[in-house]
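Subject: Interface between my chains keeps coming out wrong

I've been trying for a while to get a sensible model of this assembly. When I model each chain on its own everything looks fine, but I need the whole thing in one frame so I can look at the contacts. Pasting all components below, labels as-is. Any help appreciated, I'm running out of ideas.
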Amino acid sequence: MIEGLLDGPAHELAAAVRDGRVRAAEVAEAALRRAAKAKEAHGSFLVLSPETARAQAADVDRRIASGEPLPLAGVPLAVKDNINVAGLPTTAGSRILAGFASADDATCVARLVAGGCVVVGKTSCDEFGMGSSNENGAWGPVRNPWDPTRVPGGSSGGSAAAVAARAVPLAIGTDTGGSVRQPAALCGLVGVKPTYGRVPRYGLVAFASSLDQAGPLARTVRDAALALSAMSGPDPRDSTSLQGAPPDLLSGLERGAEGLRVGVLAEAEGAEGGLHRDVAAAFRRTADLLRAAGAAVAPVSVPRVALAIPVYYLVATAEASSNLSRFDGVRYGARQGEGDLGELYRASRSRGFGPEVKRRILLGTFALSAGYHDAYYGRAQKVRGLLARDFSEAFLACDAILCPTSPEPAFPLGSKTGDPLSMYLADVFTVPASLAGLPAVSVPVGLSSEGLPIGMQLVGTAGSEPTLLALARAVEKASGAAADRPPGAVR
Amino acid sequence: MPADAYEPVIGLEVHCQLRTRTKLFCPCPVVFGAPANTAVCPVCLGYPGVLPVLNREAVSLALRVALATGCTVRERSVFERKNYFYPDLPKGYQISQYQRPLAVGGAVPLVRADGALRPVRLERIHLEEDAGKSMHEVPWDDVPTGSSLVDLNRAGTPLIEIVTEPDLASPEEAYDYLVRLRRLVRWVEASDGNMEEGSLRCDANVSVRPRGTAALGTKVEVKNLNSFAHVRKALEHEIARQSDLLARGGTVVQETRLFETGSGTTRPMRSKEEAMDYRYFPDPDLGVLVVDDAWRDSVAASLPELPDARASRLAASLGLPAADAQLVCLSRPLADWYEAAVAAHPSNPKGLANWLLSELLARIPDADRQAGRIPLAPERLAGLVARIDDGTISGKIAKELLGAMIESGKGADELIAERGLVQLSDEGLLREAVSSVVARSPEQVATYRGGKTATIGWFVGQVLKATGGKANPALVNRLLREVLDA
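Reply #2:
Try treating it as a single job with all components included. I did that and got this:
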């Protein structure tokens, strides 16, 4: 029974634990076994956490026995390696944090654990969340369970591969410019990037603070909604967390698409770098499917989405150049270099950071430097404001905007590593919502002609997660894509 | 042009530590002198994943200084990151305010020689966090030579930076400004103002220009000024250096210079070209700081009567000379002490001020004056002055008594009774003493009567001596004149 539960959605597993049909401790052992296989097969996990998992599972079983209604009772959880979990290593995929262990849980982790989750391990990611293929991590690439020659997407590629491979039913990642949604799409999962501030950032290793949001990766919309419900809400340790109670994500989940207005992003077809044929077809199919489900579907334009990539690579890199300054080899992590202070800094950072991180630190440092600050960082911030205004105007005519999550399905390992610009374009559809602080959901809609998952994205106004999840649920129901199982699934 | 044909233009940047219980962005206690790296947490150590949360008490204290100096408080101000690498800066950036500071404008008034107030205008007051401390000369054997140690207890301590306009015209004015600024931040209880503990730190910007001209010369920033005396000394040296340079046909280079305590001189630290590019940008971890009217007004309402206002009131209502009123308002505890003494003996505020300023303060160190640690209760001084005023004792006796009062803790009346010091005012007795002195001093009497009436003092002294110092001097004076002028 446990194996069946691990193959199924998290909410059913939680119900089984709550009803006493299975104990969290048994689920944890099975999930640890599967995680070990997934680590071996795909490199999705960097480290497993049997001690933490066993302690948390025992706690869940005690709480269930005492009658606590845990929404995520016993659900095995994988946590991206740039999110703190007490007592576990946090390297954010970087050599510079080799040997570093976190002192406490990130707020979102603590909340999921309070809701009944059991942390089975930390997952591989692009270094500091910088990448779209999970090839930029210091500890090796991750393989896509749908095709081991292809990338799982990034930067939360390990989390996505772990859930897709059925090692765990739920994982969390971080999304700065698409790092939850794009791997969700490439691995056939539901991925949510919440409204900026909805999920506290305390405990996330910062990449670009004004963009970073943690979000769930799950196999069903309901699971994603359950997890996001647990993660959301204000946090006194994060001044940018949204005040006030978050909206109810579950009660309206099955409301359907009836009466909702869906705008089909007009700029999607002509996106820079082009749109894969199968993705374009799936895009049209999803629009039709929503129309059939009762939504009013019409084209909508967000003219400045075309500027999103350059704006993002100025704003995000500027913030990153500052956020990554603390990794200097002085207080923690890997210290390198003999000799004076300059040598310590040079060696620790030169050897500690990988090439993509260095590239972005240099870009961001340049964007903020005297004489260029206004032309780059300053102007990017202005365009960011205009992009948000474009979205506001578009949302006068619709409740959600539909577009592909990624311009193409999972691409072969190594195919873009030599060309950073083409890699950056993998985020062309996800970056706009990040810049505008808007919530967005990626939902699987079926497989490409090569048998690779394709995801569609729904973007809404701030706080519209209930609407987005209801629409995603309608798509999920109509497409039946949640039933697709990758050949690389573990048992 | 000779070197003395130049006049200085000075502006000061003062960093003032706010007396909060905890740090600016984390719950660590603000401590001085604790063992190294014991008042730290993941936030002020810059660990991965932590976030700053603003301490609103620090904002309130900054507002106290801003409102006390008449600044305009910005409803919306912005924290920015000042990026640079140094081991005592854990995050690799300092959270400060840059383009939109908490408060602008305002002034700190100096008192001119004629008693009038002259404002030193403030450009801005902004909030920022302090860095930790680096130790480059390590005294311990188990630390390899050449290595430096870092103590991060101070990292994240709340500071305000108070920046003047280039309004100061001499090293003396700069010194005076610092003294008055320190009085103010202590007065409003925003800071303990201890320079030796680093609660007040100062950088100076100084340039010189031909006397009487308006255009500003090239400015030099002088750092490492660890006391008010150093500020004065460094400015004197720097003004002389720049004036000499110009007088010899040279030019002043825009640069940052370090003051060297030993030699009393400044040396170059870095030039304009080597100036750091701090790459400021708004800190995305902290929203805009909003100070609404309610917050600002509640802070304003909680401010005490400010020092200059209090000095004016004391001068006007009690008839004190302006200079004495300022001296009494050296610190708030001192002014409180004085007003308590006046309350206990309202008929002679000026006498109380004289006794406080010339007798009591002379006996105690400056730190005690600042803190209002007067070794005598205000009611005790009031009791003493009351006995002078009602003629019970002379001023001379009172001076002796003051020391005894401080030592014994006893009141004036108790000591007068114990020592039998009641002033002799019995006219009959004194008349006898006067007659006796006059009778045995024919030569002196002749001198007096010959026109040298100033010798009356000698006679008074003789009578006082004869009465063991207890005679009422005013009465003796009158009786002597009656006899001698007859």
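Reply #3:
Confirming on my end. Residues 460 and 476 of chain B are 6 Å apart (CA to CA).
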